[in-house]
Amino acid sequence: MIQGKNIVKSKIRCTSSSLEHIQKHGILKGHVMEIFTDKQRIVLDGKYAKNRYRLIGRCGKRILSVVVAEDNKKFTLVTARDASKEERAVYRKNKDV
Hints:
By secondary structure, this protein is α+β, with helices and mostly antiparallel strands. It has helices spanning about 15-25, 30-35, 85-95, and strands spanning about 10-15, 40-45, 50-60, 60-70, 75-80.
């Protein structure tokens, strides 16, 4: 987990292609933005690129995994989907801490 990484929804940019992509996963922009109200959300560094971050948070009854790319302290939505079994376990473990 990344401590102190401040990713706020006001700095998230959504492109038309990223919005089309997340819709294929059954996710809407509002769902992505809702995880920023989850005080238990977690931020993980990206597996494949140093400027990418994965956020895991709750949207209603769903737990989502959202990937954003950072450029000059602004973030662009890359993808979002329902969290995997492993991601849900990480989220739940963090919630209990």
